[in-house]
Each structure stands twice: as structure tokens, then as C-alpha cells.
Amino acid sequence: MGPSDTISKMQISILGKTIYYETYGKAEQTIVFVHGWGGTHKSLKKLALKASRKWKTIIFDLPGFGKSDKPDANWGVEEYSACIVELLKQLGIEKPVYFGHSFGGSCGIFITANNVMPISHLVLCATSFKRTGKSSKVAKAVNTISKNYFPFFEQRFHSIKLLMYRVFFRNSDLARYPHLEPNFRKIITQDLTGLTEQIKVPTLILWGARDTYTPVEYADELERKIAGSYKVIYPHKSHNLPIRYPDDVWKEVRAFLAE
User: Fold this and answer.
1) Residue 233: helix, strand or coil by DSSP?
2) Which pLDDT belongs to residue 175?
3) What is the rounded average pLDDT of the residues 196-207?
4) 6-131+190-258 is a CATH 3.20.20.210 domain
5) How far apart are CA 174 and CA 180, in angstroms?
6) What is the pLDDT of residues 34-48, one digit of tens each?
7) Collapsing DSSP states into helix, strand and coil, what is residue 58?
8) Which of 57, 129, 184, 201 fits a disulfide with 48 by CB distance 3.0 to 4.6 angstroms?
9) In the chain, how many H helices and how many E strands?
10) Residue 140 has pLDDT above 60, yes or no
11) Domain ranges of the chain
């Protein structure tokens, strides 16, 4: 069987939500690949296919993305993490390797630090875990525009702000995924820094030196706080590291797991 052969493309009910997932490979050991905010199962598919030569691999759509149902409005890191854990449990997966990109890495930190389920190895790639609590420049600009130019529409302030995002900041997360606005606003207030020192499993940290979403300094901090971890920095790559460069990423992950 080749690495591109699909074992299953299925949907499953998790915490009242329909979740789409795919599995590849037939090995007993499993790697679960969890995409970032705005991604889908396709984001890490090339990486999963490479890994499936020797591992069973799982990719899926987080709630609100791809073919999976929308999450409840109160879902944050903890609720998304619970969804991932329940998915793995229902699939009969025990002690997997966890690969998390960006927000997927945030959930990996939460799951591993709180020992929600046993994880054998953790790979954190451009992980968004540190929150400063400061409003973004985009948010400040939108609030200023809305209040200055639409002072008589306070009852429609929320709708006007969304319109501003769509017109002037089309690449912002709120503009692209307005149906997940309450989730996004909750998640960006959840700082996971305090959890990092509780991680006790072998951890690999992968980062692009040109990452403008999660600065490379975050990789340095993770390496300091997670005992026994080590990092690999790619000099000319950015936040989309595992999506655009699956060969380079899998080379490091494979060596990490071989140890």
C-alpha cells in the first residue's frame, strides 16, 4: 500500500458536532496532525501522507472549518481541545504523537500540559500560545473608524465593525471567518504561557525565522520553558512552514521520532 492510499474519509459526531476526518496508513503508532486557525484537513495533508509511509496518520477539520460543524459561541482553547481528545478516543487512538500548527499547537499545549490524554511526543510548529492582552492595530483602527464615522448607529455598531473588517482588512481573521468571531475573541485572550512548564513529554519546536504571526522569539521561550525540548529554526521560512514545506518539516519530525 502506498502512502497516498486512504483508509477512510468519514464524519463522526463529537460533543454534538459533526467532524470530518481522514486516516492514512496502517501502522499501530499514530500521528495526529492538527491544523491552525483558518486551515482545514487539507492544510497538513501533504505532511500526513509523507508520515503515512511508516505511521498511521489522522487529519481532520476543526469545528468551524472545512466540512466540520460550527462550534458553540463559548468554545475556546479548552473546548476545542476536548473535541480533539474525544475524537481520538472514539477512534481508539492511544498515546499518539501530536503535531500542532499555530492554533493546533495551542490545543496541543493545553492537552499535554493538563494531561487530558497521554501524548507520546509533541511537535509544536509556529504555535500561537502567548497572548499580550493588547488590542491589535487592526482592531484599534476599526473601532476608531466605526465610532468616528458612524456615531449615530450604536445599536448597529457590531455590524458596522464587521463591515469595516470586510472592506478595509479583508485578510484579518475576523473578516475571513465572521461566523467564528466570539470564538476568536475568546481565544486571543487565553494565554497559555503558564502551561508550558507543565509539559513533560519529548517536544520538538519548529519555526520559520520570518514568521510575522508568531514571532520566532516565541520558539526561544518555548525551548526555555519546556524541559528537554529543542527547536529547529528555518531561516527563510514563515508561518505557513508545514503547509508549503512539508518535506523539510517531515525530515525533522522523522529524526525526532527516530530518537
Assistant:
1) strand
2) 61
3) 98
4) no
5) 8
6) 999 999 999 999 999
7) strand
8) 57
9) 11, 8
10) no
11) 6-131+190-258, 137-184
